[in-house]
Hints:
Layout: H1 23-40, H2 57-71, H3 82-92, H4 96-124, E1 128-129, E2 132-136, H5 137-154, E3 159-164, E4 167-172, H6 176-186, H7 191-204, H8 210-229, H9 238-247, E5 251-253, H10 266-277, H11 294-312, E6 316-318
Antiparallel strand pairs: 1-2, 3-4, 5-6
Amino acid sequence: MVWKPLFSEEDHEYDVLRDGVPDYMLESIIEWSECAEILLCLNMDHYSFSGVEEPDENRRHQLVLMFDRKTKTRTGLTTLSTSSFLRKCVNVDKDEALALKYIDFLVMKLSELQSFLLEDESSHGVVYLPSRPSEPLKVLIDYHLDDLDEIFAESGSKWKVGHRGSYGGLELRVEKNMQTFADQVMNAHNNASLFLSQAWHNVFGQNPNYSESYAQAIRAAEAASAGLITPNDKKATLSKVAQALREQKGWRFQIEARDTNNVPGGVIQLLMSAMMNSHSDRHGSSGVIECVTREKAEAAVFSAVFLVQVFESGLISQQKC
Length: 321
């Protein structure tokens, strides 16, 4: 038996990941949320140089009103402090989902602000906090988002902070090797990676949309494959690409079944066709439409990650006859 320290930092792995906001994480989440409001609601025109930073009351009021509108919920945040609201959610109302929604909302707004600062920097200069003149605001936001991710990891939470382009939000923690592989594909900064990022967040985000996730996964596979297989068809669907693979001789993936067991177009077109055939709610129908389940959406997204990597890496090619 190998000895392992009780507080080992190795991978932050846990037997059972926790949902919600358990008691031992509440104080950390309150402090993080209060600091997030400060970063989002600073009034630089009336900033106090006392070093005690607090959010501008009017800006915070508008921020929490937006949260109420987006969640279609009267949260009471306009009259409650952030600390009182989160304690009430966790200890009184037992509504930890609402507490997580507010954290997700703050992450989204911080990411939006950071994206704006990055775009604004080139033309208007860097924004600094008066009490911390050596650090630009966008860097402090980045640190703060990392702090939240560390809070979740150390607390054994099932949630993590996900960054999808200029958008940020809470996402379910995925097996680390799969997450690393997917992140590499999603960080390629092309159309396929953009669609794939949206698909990923729609299935693993705090407010999942499984049908939309499946649809975006298909778009990601289309964007990665159409340019190679059907370059003259600017509106090629995944079905058309799979059909072209079947009809055009010579296309082969690096790993194929024996000819006696294989099908025209090979194993890749089978996966593409399966994604289309299993997307049951993509068309209007007078019959019963099967809803996209979480499991089916996950399968589509993981398949899209694989397909995008296959086409982007040139692992499928047309052999000269």
